[in-house]
Amino acid sequence: MVNEITQQTSTIAVFLGQTQGNAALSGTFVVRSPSPGTFPLKGTVDTKGNFSFTVQQSAGQTPLVFYGTLQQGVYLVGHFCSSSTNTCSASTGYFTAGPKQ
Fold this sequence. Notes:
Elements: E1 2-3, E2 8-9, E3 11-17, E4 24-33, E5 37-45, E6 50-55, E7 64-71, E8 75-82, E9 93-97
Antiparallel strand pairs: 1-2, 1-9, 3-4, 4-5, 5-6, 6-7, 7-8, 8-9
C-alpha cells in the first residue's frame, strides 16, 4: 500500500469473508508495518469483480475507503482515500493484495 501524498509505504494483509450469492463483504484489515494495527472492514463486490470496502481505523481517525477490481480471481488491485462519507473524490494512493505467500 503506497500513500502517494506522504510517500509512505505500508505492508498490509486483507482478510475477507462473503456469503455465497451475497454482495456484502466483511473482514479484517491488518497493517503489518510501519505502524501495526488490526481494523474491521465492510464493503461490497459486484459480479464483475469491482469492489469497495471501508476500514474503520482507531477512534478519532477518518476511515479509509478502498476500491478497485478483483484480478485473476485472487488479487485485489485498486486505490484508497481517507473519507468520512465512504466515497473518494480523489485517490490518496494505491494498493495490491493477493493470496497468502
